[in-house]
Amino acid sequence: MERLGTILSLLSVGLVATLLPILLWRRLVHKFPLFFIYVISSLFSSILRFSVSGNYQLYFRIFWATEALYAVLALLALYEAFHDVFILDYEAWPWFWMVFPGAVLMLSTIFVGHALLYPPTGVPPLIALILSFETVVNCVKGGLLVMFLSLAWLLGGESWLTYPYGVVLGFAVSSFGSLLSYWLYSFFGTRLHWLGKYGPPMSYIVAVLIWIASCFLPPEPKDRWHNFDDPEKALATVRQYVRALRWIAEKDR
């Protein structure tokens, strides 16, 4: 099992090291610098964690310090993708810039505030704050993916797949895989102890593979709302949206 952990760590480092030159080659660094910084920090953090894995106390400190850094940089990279997809909305509505930070602030008030008011027993306060903020970031990952998928469906699939979608999909897969692994481990106990240990790194490897593939996807179209210039196409899209809302309403009854 320990050999498997070492293999997964080395594979993760190798894939991230492969992603960096691809981002440079595809000239995505200038448009998405925050994601590039996230990838660089991920590479160096993984190497640092691996190098001190034999010292438990030092590894513990470095692990949680890099987890906090991961959460902040991931949030910034998600904002970068959000801004690229909704750039037309930023130009059309001056208030639109408040949507993303407003959602983060609301989620932080709920989860971080709860950690401050009702700290979990047996957990250091700083680690509780990091975990609560990671929960906020995970919610943003999932919510942003749902928003992107809804937008792609609303526009008849014309926004799918593009590079920003791939970035968000990778983050969502990594978070969902980790949460699923921890949930199965907590539910079934020691029978799946290996899943709780190796599920998260395997999910991250899948995420990096998605990011590598995303580098070869087209950019977000500049005229993604052009169908709404055609009244017939716009009406068909609105009718599709209304039918979906009616179906949801019927299910709630």
Brief summary of the model shown:
By secondary structure, this protein is mainly α.
Structural key phrases:
single chain, 2 domains, mainly alpha, globular, 9 helices
Structural summary, described in words:
- By secondary structure, the chain is mainly α.
- It has two domains: 2-219; 223-253.
- Helices cover 78% and strands 0% of the residues.
- The chain is built from nine helices and no strands.
- The chain has helices spanning 2-25, 33-51, 56-85, 87-92, 99-117, 125-154, 163-188, 193-214, 231-252.
- Helix 1 (2-25) runs antiparallel to helix 2, helix 5 (99-117) packs antiparallel against helix 6 and helix 6 packs across helix 7.
- The longest helix is centred in the first third of the chain and has 30 residues, at 56-85.
What is the domain total for the residues?
2
The chain-level structural class is mainly alpha
Count of extended strands: 0
Order of helices and strands: HHHHHHHHH
- Percentage of residues in helical conformation: over 70%
Strand content: under 5%
Cα gyration radius (Å): 20 Å
Please tell me what the overall shape is: globular
Summarize the biggest pleated sheet. Answer: none
Question: How widely separated are the two ends?
Answer: 49 Å
Average pLDDT metric? 81
Ranges where pLDDT stays below 50 over 5 or more residues in a row are: 234-238
Number of helical runs?
9
Write the layout of secondary structure elements.
Blueprint: H1 2-25, H2 33-51, H3 56-85, H4 87-92, H5 99-117, H6 125-154, H7 163-188, H8 193-214, H9 231-252
Helix pairs in contact: 1-2, 1-8, 2-3, 3-6, 3-7, 5-6, 6-7, 7-8
